Amino acid sequence: MSRRCQLTGREPGFGKTVSHSHRRTPRRFDPNVQARRYWLPSEGRHVRLRLSTKAIRLVDRIGVEAAVARIRARGERV
C-alpha cells in the first residue's frame, strides 16, 4: 500500500542519511498517513480515506463533503 495522501497528494520524499563519518546511505521520508472513516451525509454512508495529518486538519476546516469533492475532481475513486 502506497504512503500517499488522497487529498493533498503528499508522497514519500527521498534523500540520504549522513553518518558521523559522512557516509551517505539512501533513505525515505514517509508522510504521516492515517486511515480515517468519515460519514458522508449526502450519500448516507461512510467513506474510508487515507489522509496525511495536514489533510485531516483540512477536512476539519472545509468539511468532508468539500474534501471528497476535491478528491473526486482529481479523478480518484472514493
UniProtKB/TrEMBL annotation:
User: A GO CC term?
Assistant: ribosome
Q: Where is this region: Disordered?
A: 1-27
Q: Any stretches that span the bilayer, and where are they?
A: none
Kindly give the Pfam families that the UniProt entry links to this protein.
Ribosomal_L28
Instruction: Keyword check for Cytoplasm, yes or no.
Output: no
Q: Which UniProt keywords apply?
A: Ribonucleoprotein, Ribosomal protein
Q: Which InterPro entries match?
A: Ribosomal_bL28 (IPR026569), Ribosomal_bL28/bL31-like_sf (IPR034704), Ribosomal_bL28_bact-type (IPR001383), Ribosomal_bL28_sf (IPR037147)
What the record says about family reads: Belongs to the bacterial ribosomal protein bL28 family.
- The protein's name is Large ribosomal subunit protein bL28
Origin organism is Pseudonocardia xishanensis
From the broadest rank down, the organism's phylogenetic lineage runs: Bacteria, Bacillati, Actinomycetota, Actinomycetes, Pseudonocardiales
Gene name linked to the record: rpmB_1
